[in-house]
């Protein structure tokens, strides 16, 4: 359900609203005071976002009469782990007076903060409520909606976690104006993903507004976020625990994850990796006749207009092994199917529609990687 500037995530008794508009952070205190039976809020944030926004958020909460405390951890994916969780949790449980089940956790940050703060909320006192103020485009359009929380482990990314839905999501578009351009593009890759698997008109909107979006203009940005949240909301409401439909959100991620792993830490951003993965998936889909070649070309040109890479030549510093099919294959095929000579891919069936294919042959993948090397 959507109203002006807000969308409901329909999950029965655990339903919640996502509000999108400039200036929302200053309204966080009144929102909490009016909607929830809580007098206490603990902000969890990272060092970068905390330095920019903890103070105004604290002011809003205190003015509304809440008792407020803030906990910050060092920014970066490398801190989304059990060690940071332990530090944050011990600080939370060591507060005086002690927190109780009515204490509200307030997540302030990008996807890393959202995942960690959400997991802290899911597990402190066997679960307390949390609300989310996403500050990256990726967190706004993807990570903050759907209730997936978690941490990375030595064995792999996001291997520790829980489903724990927020009670409210407040997306203040003015917070995105401080976001570095590379981080904005990370989020844009996920927006293209949503458009290709669910909404061809969104792809047209992105194509048309690319310069305004890249300039973080508040109007186009708010519309972009609302349209993407609507898509994620529909998918999450239909398939909360990722049994079927939600898997479509892995479009571009089979090769994307493999590229990220092969490139090594810091070699490639997630958005860049997903962009290359989407181009490869469209190439396979077009070669199979699932998707018209002009539609595959359109996805590619929209990604290019957003300054996302569409060929290996766009990533001159990438490690050579990350361009190599033989090196990528074992990373991509870490499931049972790969042993039988096929891998799972989400492939588009035209624009705005996609499905999971379990029978993608290694030869098709090899040709797609060759295409990324030659095109
Ligand atoms: N739970 C989910 O459903 C879900 C979905 C997608 C991704 N994720 C997770 O999200 C994480 C990536 O999130 P991300 O891309 O937001 O990264 P991030 O949270 O690390 O943020 C990127 C960087 O930007 C900084 N930053 C954030 N907001 C800022 C702002 N407004 N101004 C200036 N700097 C700002 C951060 O401090 C950080 O250094 C990954 O760990 C991924 O696994 C989760």
What features would you describe in this structure?
There is one protein chain. With 375 residues, this protein is α/β, with parallel strands linked by helices. It has two domains: 2-177, 3-Layer(aba) Sandwich (Rossmann fold), CATH 3.40.50; 182-215 and 251-374, Dehydroquinate synthase-like - alpha domain (Dehydroquinate synthase-like, alpha domain, Up-down Bundle). 48% of the residues lie in helices and 18% in strands. The protein has 14 helices and twelve strands. Strands 1-2-3-10-7-6-4-5 form an eight-stranded mixed β-sheet, sandwiched between helices. Helix 1 (28-35) packs across helix 2, helix 5 runs parallel beside helix 6 and helix 6 (181-198) packs across helix 8. The N and C termini lie far apart (42 Å). The mean pLDDT is 93. Nicotinamide-adenine-dinucleotide binds next to helix 2, helix 4, helix 5 and helix 6.
Q: Summed up, what is this model?
A:
The chain has 375 residues and is an alpha/beta fold.
Task: Outline the secondary-structure elements.
Elements: E1 2-3, E2 6-9, E3 16-20, H1 28-35, E4 40-46, H2 47-63, E5 67-73, H3 82-93, E6 104-109, H4 111-123, E7 130-134, H5 137-143, E8 148-153, E9 156-163, E10 168-171, H6 181-198, H7 200-214, H8 218-238, H9 253-263, H10 270-288, H11 293-305, H12 325-332, H13 336-339, E11 342-348, E12 354-361, H14 362-374
Parallel strand pairs: 3-10, 4-5, 4-6, 6-7, 7-10
Antiparallel strand pairs: 1-2, 2-3, 8-9, 11-12
This protein binds nicotinamide-adenine-dinucleotide (NAD).
Keywords:
single chain; 375 residues; alpha/beta; Dehydroquinate synthase-like, alpha domain; 2 domains; eight-stranded mixed β-sheet; two-stranded antiparallel ribbon; 14 helices; globular; binds nicotinamide-adenine-dinucleotide
